[in-house]
Amino acid sequence: MSQASNHWGVEINGADQDKRVWRALLKPPFDPFVEEVKNDAGDYLVLRSTIFDGIASSGEVHNLAEQLFSTLNVAMSKNADTDPVTDGAVVDFSHGGQPRRHRYIKAEGTAMRIRGGMAELTLTDAQGKVVQPQPTPSRAQLWMRAATLNPEIGSALRYLEGKPGWFELYKAFEALDGLPNGGIAKKEISRFTQTANAGERHHPNARTRPHPKPMELWEACALITR
Question: 32: cis peptide before it, omega within 30°?
Fold first, then answer.
């Protein structure tokens, strides 16, 4: 996928560690990608995407960005253990010279947790020279491409935002129903649905009996995002 041909971007707000991971995993020429903007008042990162192609106003970009960031936060969280970042100013690159920022105010909560850093792998040849790998889309970018090609995948990802419970996981499962199951065994799918239906979604009865080996919530999360 080529770089976005439009002149819009959206500033990325969040913890420095999370922004570094976004920049490391969302690289051009694949979509979406992160671009650094140099600014006298301080450099900042911008998310570029073909989803903004043909958009005429910053307000439209802002509205699209909310859903884009919601979906991408899930993809990044599941693939790189990042905390959510938020969409900031809409950035207009069309004027030449310094990009113009259009700011929209929103209230955001704050949270903190301690995590390890992201490991980087360097390859060298027999002479000890660094071998530059061929550019490939990250797993998060592949997820976003799938969500663009199939809206049901995007819906499923948004159900997984934050800390999903059985209700959200089952809604994500329903959104994906009918798509290839990625090699997941039918018995595991049955174990998931039986555990979900006998738990928070329904009161146990003759039709929704608990599975002999109920699935843990963390197992269900891993199954849906496999």
Answer: yes
